User: What shape does this take?
Amino acid sequence: MAVHWNKTCKMNIDLANEIKDGLSSSPKTLPSKYFYDEKGSALFSAIMQLPEYYLTNAELEIFTSKSKILIENLNLKKENYFELIELGAGDGYKTIEFLKALTQEAFNFSYSPIDISYQALKQIEQTVLKVLPDIKLQLQQGDYFKTLQELKKSSQPKIVMFLGSNLGNMQDEIAHNFLKQLSFNLSIKDKLILGIDLKKNADIITPAYNDSQGITRDFNLNLLVRINKELEANFNIEQFEHTPSYDEKEGIAISSILSKSKQSVYIKAINQTFYFDKDEKIFTEISRKYDDYILQKICKNTGFHIIHKTTDKKSYFADYILEKKE
Ligand code: AVJ
Assistant: This one.
């Protein structure tokens, strides 16, 4: 078992540059991938337990009750070894159900979770090995955008998993480019299991991003706490507010942070002061909701074709199987 480290100092240079770019643009933005420091990963785990955050339970239901159907539709041969690679694995909780089903049916595979958070990986290692002590496990720490090229290094058949509607954090064009790049680094017949949240009534989606306990607020504002810590900035967190919204027509939940007053913030690591107007918003995250039509549009000319779709009972969430065909 091996963990590949991203040099911490290099991470901070990326962080500083991207935060500088984001806060210099109009409107101001901050990249959602930086939510996941130790505190942020813990807050996201808490979000997944919230009654309002239906996504996790819906996808867990799919993997608990439909792993067999997914496996059938992957068209695997028991005698052929394959690599199961999970991008942005988080706590791996849902995946374990799938791993159990594969193991029960005696498939020959290794499991490589990739995550930006070291804590998350250690957690997966613990939980997976407890349930499946004999599994071949290879942890990889890093930004999955950057680890895509590494896929080419092995010529084994691959099944990539990208669950939890992580794709939804990308604008459609970026999602398209991401799938294209992923497909480019795979071989014909390799598959992608893509878990995405489906379009539905705003009354269900809105509370998922604005829970009554304020965990999602803390998760969003933690980005400022992180910048304070890692880039020696002086955001006064009290002067900012979590302001989520949902664009029902587009099917996009938007997280933002609003400046409660006219204020300035100095970031020492960048040696720059940033100015905020009263009620100015910093956009931190989009969470796209999909239907077949939107997914088909995103997949067009990526090399991936949809070959299977399965949903939870309420049809809140779907796991698709995409195959690389050209
Ligand atoms: C992990 C990206 C799928 O967008 O629903 C949860 C992150 N943000 N609550 C999502 C998140 C606010 C989550 N994803």
The radius of gyration is 20 Å. The first helix runs from residue 8 to 24. The longest strand covers residues 252-259. Residues 1-7 have pLDDT under 50 and may be disordered.
